[in-house]
Design goal:
Layout: H1 5-13, H2 15-23, E1 29-34, E2 36-49, E3 56-69, H3 70-79, E4 83-90, H4 94-105, E5 109-115, E6 122-130, E7 137-144, H5 152-165, E8 171-176, H6 184-190, E9 196-200, E10 212-213, H7 217-224, H8 231-245, E11 249-253, E12 259-263, E13 268-271, H9 285-298, H10 303-317, H11 328-338
Parallel strand pairs: 1-4, 1-8, 2-6, 4-5, 8-9, 9-10, 10-11
Antiparallel strand pairs: 2-3, 6-7, 11-12, 12-13
Helix pairs in contact: 2-11, 3-9, 5-6, 7-8, 9-10, 10-11
Length: 344
């Protein structure tokens, strides 16, 4: 895509600094506290219609399991090289064991993942099918979850673990998908973090005083109570969100319109989208943004630098179908390509 020449010039001036920050990601120690989800993808070939009902019968071909929700933020931090402490809840079920196994295979510390027998592991199972010479299409999604909040016992146990470990990490990510892990005791515990980055869909003021919030446009509109339809609305929303959250900065992610950064210091920046054309799936891109910018802050980045690296990471994962991650090496290559003569 073509970048604004002024922005590309700024990116070129800062390229060496951004690469230095990227190369420091592996030194980061991060705790991610969130609502953990297992994403399942079951694929099969259509054999015939059932005699029992007007539905297709699939011959199973493949099952893939990958981290979703807050678990995707955890996995993204690890993929970018950080040492990660995962904190959350799973059920006493096969899906919970699978999620822990995925984490442990890439050396993610899972001691903070507690088992709550009364609630299932949040699982989203997507069943897709195809004929012999057709593309695979999703047919149905089956969700497993509980509408009940975690028990007081488990809320307190998570908070105790966080309090015991928080001095050993450089930053905490709060990944709130509304499934109850980010309870009041847990929020109180993570508020002691040197850097607290919050990705929450609703009730942002519960995390008042965090370092940085990363709402997308619909979440920002919900938080401020009005539509963000133009530049004036965006400016107003940025200031209202800063006041509402007491944050040091707010980053509103706006899809193909890029990102808008508002800092309590008065600093403001608009960062264009780095990839508008090769977009196949935005699932989980917000988790990638949060992971990359958190590691950048730990490495010593200012808010603009952190947002640029978050944007860069997201531009890569949206090229892949399904929840995806990226690497420092891929980000470095993409940054070099963006600053090549003739790209802008």
């Amino acid at each position: 895509m073509r970048l604004d020449p002024t922005f590309q010039s700024q990116l070129l001036r800062e390229r060496d600094r951004l690469i230095t920050l990227l190369q420091s990601f592996r030194q980061a120690k991060v705790m991610v506290v969130g609502d953990l989800t297992l994403d399942e993808f079951l694929t099969g070939r259509v054999e015939r219609l059932s005699r029992e009902a007007p539905v297709a019968i699939l011959r199973h071909e493949e099952t893939r399991r990958i981290p979703g929700g807050g678990a995707n933020a955890i996995y993204n931090c690890a993929s970018l090289g950080a040492q990660v402490l995962a904190v959350g809840l799973v059920g006493d079920d096969e899906q919970g064991r699978a999620l822990r196994s995925i984490f442990e295979a890439v050396q993610i510390n899972t001691q903070g993942i507690l088992v709550e027998e009364e609630r299932p592991t949040v699982t989203k199972t997507r069943i897709s099918g195809h004929a012999r010479q057709s593309v695979t299409q999703q047919i149905v999604r089956l969700d497993r979850k509980s509408d009940e909040p975690p028990s007081q016992h488990h809320q307190q146990a998570l908070a105790r673990y966080i309090a015991e470990q928080i001095d050993r990490v450089d930053a905490v990510v709060g990944s709130d998908y509304g499934d109850g892990v980010l309870s009041d005791p847990v929020i109180h515990a993570i508020s002691a973090a040197p850097h607290l980055v919050v990705d929450a869909q609703v009730d942002l003021d519960r995390f008042r005083g965090a370092t940085l919030f990363t709402p997308n446009l619909p979440e920002a509109e919900l938080a401020v109570g009005y539509a963000i339809a133009n530049a004036a609305d965006l400016q107003r929303a940025g200031q209202d969100l800063l006041q509402k959250t007491g944050a040091k900065a707010v980053l509103i992610t706006r899809g193909e319109e890029g990102m808008s950064l508002f800092a309590a210091s008065g600093e403001q920046h608009h960062i264009p989208a780095f990839n508008r054309t090769d977009v196949f799936d935005v699932t989980g891109a917000g988790d990638t943004v949060v992971a990359a910018l958190t590691l950048a802050l730990v490495a010593g980045a200012n808010f603009w630098e952190a947002a640029v690296l978050g944007n860069l990471a997201a531009s890569l994962v949206v090229r892949v179908f399904g929840t995806a991650t990226t690497t420092v090496e891929a980000m470095e290559a993409a940054l070099l390509q963006l600053t090549e003569p003739g790209v802008g």
